[in-house]
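haha ok so turns out i had the wrong file open the whole time. this is the CORRECT one, sorry everyone. sequence first:
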Amino acid sequence: MPAHTSTHLTPLAKALMMRHALRSKLSLSGLGMMMAMGMAAHVQAQEWTLKIPAQPLDQALQRFAEQVNIQVLYSPSDVQQLRSTALNGRYDLDRSISTLLQGTGIQYQLSGNTLTLQPASSGKALELGATNVKGTQLAATTEGTGSYTTGSSNTATGLNLSLKETPQSVSVVTQQMIKDRHYESLDQALNHTPGILVKQDTGDTRWEYWARGSVINTIQYDGLTSPIQTFTRDVTADDDLVIYDRVEVVRGATGLMTGAGNPSASVNLIRKHSTAQPQASLSTSVSSWGNIRSTFDGSTPLNDAGTVRGRTVISGFTGKNQRNSSESDNGLLYGVLDMDLSSSTTASVGFTYQVQNNDGYSWTGLPTRRDGSFYDFDQGSFVGSDWFYLDRRQTTLYADIEHRFDNDWKLKAAARGIKAESDYVSGSGYLIGSNYFREDYDVDYEDESHSFNLDLSGPFNALGRTHELMLGVSSGRDHIWTGGGFVPDTFVGNVETYNYRSIPKPDLNQNLYTRGFTVQQHGLFAATRLNLADSLKLILGSRVSWYENKSFTLNDFGYTPANYSVKGEVVPYVGLVYDFNDTYSAYASYTEIFNPQSAVDRQGRLLDPVEGTNAELGIKASFAEERLNLSTAVFETKRTNLAVSLPSISCNAGIQSCYEAAQEVRTRGVEFEVNGEIQPGWNVQAGYTWSQSEYIEGDNKGQAYGTESSPKHLAKVGTTYRLPGIWQALTVGSSVRAQSKTFYKGSDYYIEQPTFAVVDAMARYTFNDRVSLQLNVNNLFDREYYQTITTTYHSGNFIGPGRNALLTLDYNFW
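then structure:
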C-alpha cells in the first residue's frame, strides 16, 4: 500500500518525504528506500537527448530538471561558484547526472523523481538542512529555455526578484518571443509589449515609447541608464535585438534605479553572453518587400578549462521597407569575451559596431487637410525627394566585473560607452490651403555617452530572519552636438498631384546653426528587502541624485544658453508584498517623481522639473514553478510642471518651440497581464491597459490633459502552440494588438485615428535539431491605419505598415 500511494504524490510531497527520510538517516537497505529505488529504476531506464552547455551549476540544474522533469533538492550555498560539465547527446538518467556533476565534488542520491545533492567533502550523511526545491524554475537568462517569461528580474529595485515578488508591473520580451515573432528592432518588440505605445515622433528612425500617458525618456542597457533626448534617435543606431537575450519592461515610476525620468516605464536591454559549450547558428530571412537579412551567431570556449569564452554576432541587411522610395544597407558586428578570473570572480568585455545607410529617408510624415480629414495616401506614399538620406555609425564598448564573496554577497562594476555620428539630408513640410511647402535640411550629429554603475548586494541577519540589502553608485554623461543648414519655404506644389521627388536639391549651406546638449547625472542608491514574516516582505529604497542639464543654440539670432542643475535630490521608494500562499500575492508600491526637462518658456529659459508621486496596487499569481505569471494592477500618478506647447508666434525670436508649465495633472489606470506557458508547448503573452490623464487643478480642472492623446484602451495578445503527436514539428501562432481612438487637437483643427486592430500570424516547421523554416505574416488582413498622428496637421502623420511576409531559414551547426 505505501508503494501504491507514493506514486500519486506531488513532486513537492515526495520531496518532503525524502527530506524526512534523509534526516532520519535511513539506510539504503531499508524497506522505504528499496521501494524508492524501484521507482528510480523505472525513471533511469529512460533516455533523453540533452543539450545543456557548461555553465554555473545552479543554472545547469534548473535546465536539467525541466528537460527530464525531475525534482532537484540542494542547498544553494553548496553549488555556488561551481560550474557544470556540458551534456550534449543521448543519456540515461544516471549517466546524465554523473556527467553534469563531474569535477564539482558534489555527490547525489536519486529516489523516484527526486534528486538530492550534497558536497562529497562534507563527510556527512545526505541531509538537506536549508533546502531549495528547484524543480523547473527558470533562471534570469531566457536563451534556450523556450519560455515566455523569466525566473528573475532586478530592473525595478536592483534586487534579484521573481516577477511575483516585484511590487510593480513587469513585462519581459524573451528570446523565444523574439524568435517566434521575428523581432529585429526594439521598436517592433515594444509595439507588441503590454502597456507600451510606440509612435514615430518624426522620421523613419525617430521613435517614441509611451506608457501610462507619458513618454519613456530613459533606456537601460544591462542596467546602465542612458537618457533619450530629442535628437538621440537621429544619431544613435536602432537597437538591433540580435545581440540581446531579453528586454525587461517595468511600468510606472522607476527613479530608484534610473534617476530622473517620467513615471512611464523603464526599458532594460540585457545582452547575450558567451557559452561554455560550442554553439553556432545561421539565420537568413527574405521579405515580400524585397529585402534580405542574414545573421551568424557563434559562441565557444577559448581554452581547455572553459574559463575563457567568446561570442560573435555578425548581421547584415539590404533592401526596402514599406515605401518603395526607401532603401537601406545595414551591418552589425558584436563581440563579447567572458572570463572566469577565479572561482569567485568573473569579468566581461565586449563591443558593438553598427553601420546604417538609408536612402530615401523621410524626416517628415504625411500631411492632412486643415479640417482634419486624411488625403488618399497609402503605405508607400512619400513626400520627400530622391536625394534624401540618413547615414549612421556607432561604436559601443562594454565592460563589467563581478566578485562573489563567501558570505553570498557580491560586488559588481559595469561601464558602457558609445560614440556615434550621423548625417542626413531631409525636410519637413507644411500646408497653406492645398499648396505644400517644405523646409529642407542638411544636418550632422555627434553623440558621446558614458555610464558607470557599482553595486554591492547580499543577505544579512536581523531579529532571527534573513534579509537582503543592495547599495550602489552610478554616474552618466550624454553629450549631443548637432549643426547644419536649411532652406525654408520651398514651394513644391499641390499636395495631391505634385511629384515631390522631382524637386532639385537646393544649396543647403544656408541659415547655419549649431546646437549642443549635455546631461550629467550622478546618484547614490540603496534598497533593502526586509523579511517581516514568512508571508510579508517590505522593500525600502532611496536614491540621491545630482543632475545637470546644459544646452545652447547658436544661429542668426545669436547665442542662446539654457542651463539647469540640482544637487542632492532625494527620491524614496516603498514596496510591500504579501503572499497569500505559494500561488497568490498582493502588493503596493509608492515612489516620487523628479524629471528635469529640456522644454523652454517664451524667453528660452528651461521649465522647472516635473515633480509628483506614483502609487500602485496589484495582485499577482504564479503557476507551474513560476513558468506562468498573471498580474493585475491599479495605478495613480500626480505631476506638476508638465510642459504645454504654446503657439510659435508667442515665442521670442530665435526660439522655434516654447512651452508653459501645466497645473497638476492626474493619470489613473488599470492593467492586466498574463505571460508564460499555459501547458507544455502553449505559450502566451497578453495584456490590457486602460488609462486617462486629466487636470485636477487650475482653469482646466476636469479636462483631459494635452493636445495629443494616448489611447484609453490598449490590448495586446500573442500566442504560439506546438502541435502534439505526429505534428509536433509544427508550431503555429498569432497575435493581435488593438487600441482605441487617438487624436491631435490643434488651434483650429482636429485629427482623429479611429479604433483599430492589427493581426499577425506565424508558422514554423522544425525538420530536425538543426534546421527549421518559419513564416511570419504581419498585418494579415492589410488593415490601413495611422501609426502616429502628432505635432501639426502638415507633417506629423505616419501610416502603419501594410501586409508583409517574412520567410526565415535557421540552421544550427551543432
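Residues 268-812 form a domain with the Maltoporin; Chain A fold (CATH 2.40.170.20).
again sry for the mixup
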